[in-house]
UniProtKB/TrEMBL annotation:
GO terms for cellular component: ATP-binding cassette (ABC) transporter complex; periplasmic space. GO terms for biological process: peptide transport. This is ABC transporter substrate-binding protein. It comes from Paenibacillus hemerocallicola. Keywords: Signal. Residues 31-40 have a biased composition (Low complexity). Residues 25-86 are annotated as: Disordered.
Length: 650
């Protein structure tokens, strides 16, 4: 039966990929403000969408606004844009046959979290510099109009766009950067510990960055060691956006004791429910970080994103930013779509029902592969299309905690022969077929051949002897048990866990599986209380994220590394070598890092730190069939980063 379902899935997904590929089109030392972009002709956005394939990439000089702003007493659109607007380039040119869109409409999304919506978060993510498709293979200006990197990779000079404005119309200048740096990042009360990425090469023992304001729009950030990966830190790492280096001083200074005396702040502190003198808590409550863009406190906060939050609650609503800095090649101020609306639902099944009913315009990461045949069958009725992109991370890697506080456990799991045996016992083809219905491939980072005979021999050599019950005993003479605890938030974790239990039992290991609440999982992981678990990691797919699960398979080693030896436990040399390989990339230029990134895969493959069983995983998404400028190319999350380019066809 499972084989039959896999065949059906294969036919369905191949058909979907072929259709979307046909419809999406596409061809197979100093950065300036005019990056490569999907070009377009200059037809008015109020007319039928036009293909961009034959036009130039010149930044236009005449601009148009959405009719949504007509009659709202705003300055002319040209005065609301920077002197040099950003010509949108959110996707690589061969990922999208860009069309000049039409204005209007409301994009409807859904979420299961009271305040967090991944669709809205990603659409509104605006870094200082960007990497088209978030691939980490190219970095271009975004909020800044240009950047320059010194030959020694130690100094980074960035120039803001002159005339750039906050969503309330106030100008963005070097004063906003100085405020973010000098009054927040370097204020010990607001920032007791400087973020790691702002130290040389993102090293806990590295020296803090040096900051210099050069003129009204230009600033320099310097380090005492090469830090070629700094641009990737700005563009991709942690989806941090601009908020740490650029803050609306005109708004936040009224809550900062440097600019507003404490006695003047006391009424606001009291009203916010804080104790007398707690201005830091007040400031934190008023400031909005990148990951808080959908929180209720974001209403009224000046932003540089394509949309502004105007309503919170079960239905979160955003409307277009009148001062947004991007345009298309026809001079239309982006975004095309006027509003975003996110509805809270109880569970993933409710999401599927709403998609089938045509009540969801974009379903980021909510469509699971097993649901694709049903959704494909009802596309016309529901008015949506299923696109098959790629997942920007792994889906569900297998982790054993090498730092769990149990001497017998540590003795076994830290033996590379044991980890190699477990890898040899995994049937990765069965995992790909069962968990992903064939829409993934066994990862080649570690050995893919299953060999139970060699696995059993390795366990025998270690001294894990089988008892009369068929299970192996640990060095303490007790049955050696691998107790998986996985988050219940991901159905595929349970499916994979069941397979691993059965596959590893075939080599005499007692393996159990328990699903726990996601919040409990997070707390237990942070407390180093999980012996074995399942969780995805970005590193194997999106190399620039440089996150290879160290905080899951070795929490105490990870703490030691990130604290410069002040916390956690010192790892053995072979683990230090891996961490050094990962973090060494941050010193290198982008060109050199692209070459050296394979060293991490080689280290994982030789040491089996954790088990990356699958790669090239499909990421289906259901999208309103009328939405343009979406394709099946690249990572699904890359398409979301281009959300300001989406539009509703008439």
């Amino acid at each position: 039966m499972k084989k039959t379902l896999s065949v059906i899935m294969l036919a369905t997904l191949v058909s979907a990929a072929a259709l979307t590929a046909c419809e999406s089109g596409g061809a197979g030392k100093e950065a300036s403000t005019t990056p490569p972009s999907a070009a377009a002709n200059t037809q008015d956005s109020g007319t039928k969408p036009v293909s961009a394939a034959t036009a130039t990439t010149a930044v236009p000089t005449d601009f148009k606004q959405s009719p949504y702003f007509d009659g709202k007493s705003l300055p002319p659109v040209k005065e609301r844009l920077p002197k040099e607007p950003k010509l949108t380039n959110e996707l690589p040119k061969d990922y999208l046959n860009y069309e000049i869109g039409t204005y209007g409409g409301t994009l409807r999304t859904v979420r299961q979290d009271p305040v967090n919506d991944s669709d809205l978060f990603i659409i509104n993510n605006e870094p200082l510099v960007n990497s088209p498709g978030v691939l980490g293979e190219e970095v271009t200006p975004n909020l800044v109009k240009s950047y320059k990197v010194s030959d020694d990779q130690k100094e980074f000079t960035l120039t803001l766009r002159e005339g750039l404005k906050w969503s309330d119309g106030q100008p963005v200048t070097i004063q906003d950067v100085k405020f973010a740096v000098e009054d927040v990042l370097l204020n010990k009360e607001l920032t007791p510990t400087l973020p790691l990425w702002l130290k040389s090469a993102s090293d806990a023992n590295g020296q803090p960055f040096a900051f210099q304001a050069i003129d009204d729009y230009t600033f320099k950030i310097g380090f005492d060691q090469p830090y070629g990966g700094f641009l990737i830190q700005l563009a991709v790492q942690g989806w941090r956006g601009y908020n740490e280096l650029l803050k609306p001083k005109h708004f936040l200074q009224q809550y900062h004791v440097k600019y507003t005396p404490l006695d003047k702040l006391e009424p606001a502190i009291k009203e916010a429910g804080f104790a007398s003198g707690e201005w830091v808590k007040l400031f934190t409550a008023k400031d909005v970080l990148n990951n808080e863009i959908t929180y209720p406190k974001a209403i009224g906060f000046p932003v540089l994103t394509p949309y502004i939050q105007v309503k919170s609650g079960d239905k979160i609503e955003f409307e277009r930013n009148p001062y947004y800095f991007k345009v298309d090649a026809a001079g239309n101020q982006l975004p095309y779509i006027d509003k975003l609306q996110s509805t809270l639902v109880q569970n993933a099944e409710m999401v599927n029902l709403k998609i089938l009913a045509g009540e969801v315009d974009h379903s980021y990461e909510y469509v699971s592969i097993p649901k694709v045949p049903l959704l494909k069958e009802n596309e016309a009725k529901g008015g949506y299309k299923v696109y098959i992109n790629n997942l920007h991370r792994t889906a569900n890697d297998i982790h054993l905690n090498l730092t769990y506080d149990d001497p017998a456990w540590r003795q076994v799991v830290r033996d590379v022969r044991f980890r190699k045996a477990l890898n040899l016992a995994l049937d990765k083809k069965e995992i790909a077929d069962t968990v992903f219905y064939g829409f993934a491939k066994p990862s080649t980072i570690e050995e893919t051949t299953r060999n139970l005979q060699e696995a059993n021999k390795l366990l025998d050599d270690i001294g894990l002897k089988k008892g009369a019950d068929g299970f192996r005993a640990g060095p303490d003479g007790k049955r050696f048990t691998i107790p998986f605890e996985v988050s219940s938030a991901f159905a595929d974790f349970g499916t994979l866990g069941q397979l691993v239990v059965e596959q590893w039992k075939q080599i005499g290991l007692d393996v159990t599986l328990k699903q726990i609440d996601s919040t409990l999982w997070t707390n237990r992981n942070k407390a180093n209380e999980l012996k074995a678990t399942i969780m995805f990691t970005p590193g194997p797919v999106q190399w620039s994220r440089q996150e290879w699960g160290q905080n899951i398979w070795a929490p105490l080693w990870d703490q030691w590394w990130n604290s410069g030896g002040k916390q956690g436990e010192e790892p053995p040399q072979e683990a230090k070598d891996l961490f050094q390989t990962i973090f060494k990339l941050r010193e290198l230029s982008l060109k050199d890092a692209l070459v050296k990134r394979d060293d991490i895969r080689k280290n994982i493959g030789a040491n089996y730190w954790y088990f990356i069983h699958s790669e090239n995983i499909a990421a289906p998404v259901a999208v309103n069939a009328k939405i343009g400028n979406i394709s099946d190319k690249g990572w699904g999350i890359g398409q979301n980063f281009a959300g300001e380019q989406w539009f509703f066809r008439k």
